[in-house]
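Troubleshooting entry. The earlier prediction with N-carbamoyl-L-aspartate gave an output that would not parse, so I re-checked the input for stray whitespace and re-submitted. Clean input:
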Amino acid sequence: MSGMRHLVSIDDLSIGELNQLFEHARHFSENLRDSTGACRGFIAASIFYEPSTRTRLSFESAMLRLGGGVVTAADMSTSSVAKGESLADTVRVVSGAYADILVLRHPSEGAARLAAKYSTVPVINAGDGANEHPTQTLCDLYTLWIEKGRIEGLDVVLFGDLRYSRTIHSFVYALARFGANLVCIPHKGLELPDYVLKRLHEEFGASPQAADVSRLGELAGSSGATYIELPGPQRSQLHPESDRGVHLVRRVDAIYMTRPQTERFADGDSDLDYVSLNPESMASEALSDAVVMHPLPRRDEICPDFDADPRAIYFDQAARGVPIRMAILGMLLGQLDFDADPTEPKQAEHSVNQPGNPCPNQGCVSHTELRQVPPCYRVLGDSPVRAACAYCSRALEAALVGELGQEQAFCPDSPKARQIPVERLVFFRGPQEALAAGYTA
Ligand code: NCD
């Protein structure tokens, strides 16, 4: 491994690296108290702008078990943020002499990507708003790998708040890459966001279908279930048994419950009738081998009466956060052996060439941090010309594109649009916006 690496999105790790992380984690878990001091002399800084129990404590425990040290800003309201310091400045100060690696949790989407831009040391995203939580996904994937011996071809049911759960978003991107099959049973109004579905479709060829989940008993509730078919290495057990194109869910390998993320709810969102799992609702034959996972904390979505059931593995899952975080700390600090090929480098980042901020996501750090966040984009493809915010990765809504300093705007799928140098692109949501900027459409 060469060059400094960050873990901002679960996509920053290749499948080969993920498998090697699991091997290292298993090795660490065999003797947590004798970890050979792989990170002796290194310091991790926890910078948490949102509450946390498991993520922060397991990271700090992991670093201490590796022989390293930790410094903690667990409540940023007591830091210089209260004096108006920007995230960029905080990161510049803490990275380097204070710490050799940063673990950051922040309410704005794309905050970790912003931090990575200003940090002189690796940054780990410990949750950025509703966007991603890649180290929870490491813990979740590692748990599946231990419990089921594989991830490929597993049938995983995702329940509850699929809209605001960052753990779900990182998890589905990773499950898609591993070729697992997904059944989404969202709480009404808390379905997987369109941008996640779009990405699953564009990057992984996933196509959502209706699912018949009646065999999941009460758990299915009245929500519209979706089966997301992934072109994985092994085909699903969730065979289509009818010719109506509705997938019948027969046997499930894992159930992933989520807490309603009420702290991120918008007006009109409700957690009334939120799904609740109990011993009776798990009695269905289809669920007899299904391990039940939850990133925790739980509220009422898993009844404590179910805790003694052998399928209830959420506390083991939380415990596994320590060895897997030891593995990722050791990897990013260059202290563990990895020979798997890394992911392809990301597309280059460009400052926007127009006034204002074309990122459509109002929860993005490019909108919420007022200082030192110049709007930037990356070009994802040229047929049609597609770009995304360089911080939160949300696609820019460009009905027309133009070239800086020119006067004509084009449809993104036209040959003229393709000829515009990527660093000179200007994005317009529609003809009126183009006209107002002096372009003819
Ligand atoms: C999750 C989070 O913060 O997104 N918690 C965690 O890190 N284990 C899930 C949640 O808060 O519901």
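This one parsed fine. The mean pLDDT is 92.
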